[in-house]
Write a structure and sequence with these properties.
Number of domains: 2
GO molecular function, one term: DNA-binding transcription factor activity
Structural class: alpha+beta
Radius of gyration: 20 Å
Keywords: DNA-binding, Transcription, Transcription regulation
CATH architecture of the largest domain: Sandwich
Number of strands: 10
Protein name: AraC family transcriptional regulator
CATH topology of the largest domain: Jelly Rolls
Strand order of the largest sheet: 1-2-9-4-7-10
Largest sheet: 6 strands, antiparallel
Pfam families: ExsA_N, HTH_18
Shape: globular
InterPro entries: ExsA-like_N, Homeodomain-like_sf, HTH_AraC, RmlC_Cupin_sf
Amino acid sequence: MGYQTQYIHPDLKLSRFDDTFYKADVLFEQHLLVWLISGETKIVQGDQTHWFEAGDILLFPRNQLVTVINYPKYGLPHQSAVMHLTKQRLTDFYNKNKVEVRQMQPPVFRAFDRHPFLKSCLNSLIPYFDLREPLPENIASIKIEEAITILRTIDREIDHLLANFDEPGKISLTDFMEKNYMFNMPMDKFGYLTGRSLTTFKRDFKKTFQTTPQKWLTEKRLELAHYHIREKKRKPSEVYLEVGFENLSHFGYAFKRHFGYAPTEMAG
């Protein structure tokens, strides 16, 4: 059994997979509130790595790159309940609840330490997944508004994230790419996050770095892997996903082609 997603409403789903692990470099178009029911999740953002387990509750901001690696654990699949906090729903909420919003630093995901308010709210969704028909919109709206209200109660700064509906503007290509090169994303997504069309992104990239995006990304990822293996004494199998490669054998081939020796030789 592979990856399964069960929707009871467009904004409410139950995700499950039973494979050894599932890795994705993600860019969510809307905020996601996630409750880990079973399994374990590893999140890599920039040079920070975080581990979460069953019971933890996370909020992933929209338009932020993050690497997520999910693992089954204790013989149980990785399973999570997910609530989408869409732009339209948040706009409707904040039209009724006016707030003053200030600009924030680029947001990072938030962890809520199994807060009982949120756990109770998300746990109450589980019986609905036994329904044979979609969850009525009025009930879904009540549950999502409850979650938003709880977030505002336990995090006084959350309005500055949830009520900010700005789209990415044109920013420094050098600064952004140096911080986010390890994310394996389509080029048009990199362009969007830097406030550029795909054509403008490629043109500006060539002018800035004197090479193509794909060549530059591959070299940067290999250099990061080299650092982790040599300086931090980590195994190639531990780092290839984190630095943006999808396949261990392809990583080994690219590494040897670039450096002249295999990563396993250096690790040994």
